[in-house]
Structures are given as structure tokens and as C-alpha cells.
Design goal:
single chain; about 220 residues; Dihydrodipicolinate Reductase, domain 2; four-stranded antiparallel beta sheet; 10 strands; about 25% helix; disordered C terminus
């Protein structure tokens, strides 16, 4: 499934909605219920990922072959040393509001390939971002051996977790924009409904839409 999303470097883009558990845990954490347990509010939360163009070309080839990778005679898995410097992986949370004065916020990490290799040889920007979460999570468990199973949203000392992960996360920064999907009115609830974020077919080109100025508010 394809969805609209937004990142500081590119702007609006068509990404793939993929399964990630935080889509459920965040939605549960932010859900409001009344005394009878009926849901009063539950936000739209999903995980959107846009791979690099070469990876997307490979996915299209497999799709054209009926999702049977065995039909490809030549296969090659790129290693870290084959990935050129200059590319980056941006991973963050895009929080959209219905209040025009607040706009849309993005907070996350931008790691370039050369930064990842400097931190850990033979790694990629994506792999060090994943490793950062594993390492900081393991350190948290060491400090809290009796807490049992916890969701990230329930961790109180999250600032310490971010501090432990920061050396692997390149630039941690916060930005704000006036972006809305399809240029919709932010005060209209329909603008933020999931159906308005979905993209069907290949007719929608984000490059043809308005370009929104991104204001970088700060970094870690």
C-alpha cells in the first residue's frame, strides 16, 4: 500500500506503508476512552518507508514477475562498501495537527553513509539506526531489570535512552512545516483520514505539488 508522507530533505513523497509495531503501540497510547471504555479519540498512526530508487526498481521487477524472485537469474546483495557516500537515511516521526498555527512537525535522525561507516565500518545508515535502538534498549534493560515487558511509550527516562542512542544517529533535529496531504485544509478532519493519505496507482506525482518551506527548529 502506498501513502503520502513528508520528510525534511525531499518534501512530500509517495512511500510504502509497512508493518511496524509502533503503529499499534503509539495509537493505543494516544487513544482516549470514556468511563464506559468506549473510544472517544484514536489518532491515525502508520509507518511509511521510501526506499532508494534502485531498491524500488528491484521491487518493481519482482512484482512484475509475480513476486517470484527465483525467476531472476542474476541476484546481487549490495554490501556497505559498495554504497556510495552522500546518501542518507532519515528516520523520524511526522506529527500532523489540525491547527494552522502549529502546522506539521518532524523529529528524527538523518544519518549519511559516510557517517555510518565512521561509526562502524561495513555498516550502512540504516543499520546503525537500527543498532542504536537495540543498544539503547539493552542498556535500559540493564538499568531496569525488574520492569518486565514495557512498550517504549511507557518508558519514563526516555531522554537517557535517546542519549545512549545519539552517537549512532547522526543529526537529531526538529523541523516544522505547513504541509498537509494533497494541500488540504488542516482544520478539516477529512484531510487527516487515512483514505486521504492513500495513493492508488501511479497517477499521483508528489513533485507536481506545492513545495513547502521546511523550518529546521533545532538539533540535538
Amino acid at each position: 500500500m502506498k501513502v503520502l508522507s513528508y520528510v525534511p530533505s525531499f518534501g512530500e513523497q509517495v512511500a510504502c506503508a509497512v508493518t511496524h509495531y509502533e503503529s499499534t503501540s503509539l495509537a493505543n497510547f494516544l487513544t482516549l476512552k470514556n468511563d464506559q471504555g468506549h473510544v472517544l479519540y484514536r489518532p491515525t498512526v502508520h509507518y511509511a518507508y521510501h526506499a532508494c530508487e534502485d531498491a524500488l526498481d528491484s521491487i518493481r521487477e519482482v512484482e512484475a514477475a509475480g513476486w517470484n524472485p527465483d525467476l531472476h537469474a542474476v541476484k546481487h546483495v549490495y554490501r556497505a562498501e559498495e554504497i556510495q557516500d552522500g546518501g542518507c537515511d532519515e528516520l523520524g516521526v511526522l506529527m500532523c495537527t489540525k491547527y494552522p498555527k502549529d502546522g506539521t512537525y518532524w523529529y528524527g535522525t538523518t544519518v549519511y553513509s559516510e557517517e555510518a561507516k565512521a561509526v562502524a565500518p561495513y555498516s550502512t545508515a540504516t543499520s546503525v539506526q537500527v543498532a542504536a535502538g537495540v543498544l539503547s534498549g539493552a542498556l535500559w534493560m540493564q538499568r531496569n531489570p525488574t520492569q518486565g515487558l514495557c512498550e517504549p511509550e511507557n518508558i519514563i527516562d526516555y531522554e537517557q535512552v535517546l542519549h545512549d542512542a545519539a552517537p549512532f544517529l547522526g543529526k537529531l533535529h526538529l523541523g516544522r512545516s505547513s504541509w498537509t496531504p494533497r494541500g488540504g485544509d488542516p482544520t478539516n478532519e477529512a484531510t487527516w483520514q487515512f483514505n486521504n493519505l492513500r495513493v492508488s496507482g501511479s497517477s499521483y506525482d508528489p513533485r507536481s505539488t506545492r513545495i513547502f518551506k521546511w523550518s529546521d527548529k533545532g538539533s540535538w
